[in-house]
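Example record

One chain of 413 residues, shown exactly as stored in the release files.
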Amino acid sequence: MISDYTNLRDHPDVDLRVAFDADPSLPGLDDPYSVYADLRAESSVHWCSGPQMWAVLGYQDAAAMMHDKTLARQPERDRLAEIYGNSDIYTRQKLDLPYMDGERHRVMRRHVMNAYNAIDFESLRVFLRQFADERLASVQDQDSFDLVSVLSADLPVYVVSQLIGVPASEQAQAAEVVGEFVAARGLVQTEDIASGGDSAVSVFEDFFLPLIHERRARPQDDLTSRLIADPVDGMTMSDEQMLLLLSSNFYAASMFTIRLFVATMAMAMARFPDVYRQVRTDPTLIPTAVEEVLRWDPPAQAVNSSMAMVDLQFGDITVPAGDALTVMVGAANRDPAQFPDPDSVRLDRQPNRHLSFAPGVHACLGLHLARMEGAVALEAMTHHLPEFGYDADASVRFVGDRFRGFDSLIIQR
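Predicted structure tokens for this chain:
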């Protein structure tokens, strides 16, 4: 059964090809990349019967699919809505930017970018540096600590607080359902996942709608106010549109991916101490290290699924029009045809054309913010952790479709 492989930590003896067929994200597996390498050597694209979609593993095909305008996301939401007719989540997702297509997507993307461009990144960087330094300084005398609880879990909470105007102390209820909200955007869907997505949106309604109404009545200098009505493009958003935008693009995306990525970056520095020593010796290498860890082990392992609107050809394999398709970002980023020595973290990949921000039609809007948060976190590590390792046995991997990282990472000095 598909559900048997939702957590591969519980099934160490499972046939990993069978598990890939059930969920190509291989949730909970310490090393999915060796599985991807074997499959990619056979074919760039594979059918997965669990999510009922094709998974693209090869770099060149993955990059091409990210730019391919014959792929559409709205029809794929319609397919899911038809299957899970008792749920509203997939129909509501069609109002959200990541699931829009064509001109509607272009107009909405421009509107959100205008709001993003008004962020005072330098002031935010100063705030985050102080925050990260204080958090790591608080465990300076401890031989071991959990980086997730000390730094990576709260860092995006405080970023969201600064951007949308909600105090960190008031976010607990919404933070509890982020996982259910994100699961409804995964590759594998079930009745329970759809129901959880509906429940999460109900919580987000209670959390965000009062804020939206307040900012609509009394605008402030924050992202929420700029998204509601933009004087530059003259666009005004409905409450439902605002709810989905804030919930996904500025809350779940930040809260989920940054939390996972910061811990993964620490793990990478511990596993590659020579790289970490280079970064500590020359802080100008921090942005390079951030990009390389994003390539090596990205927090988002696959992009949102789309539907092929025309037949697509991958060698001798035809993906027929009407079939669903995703790009396995983590697999593509380890393709040796694009990245020599792909399983190592190296600082000499110039340029580093990884796919972790989905360059193309649906490129990540928050890439500058994500890069800044990652760089601030790594900078703070270099200040407070001259040398360190991590306890792999005591640490706990996050288990979830499409995403990868840690729920707990035990740092050892």
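Notes: The first strand starts at residue 45 and ends at 48.
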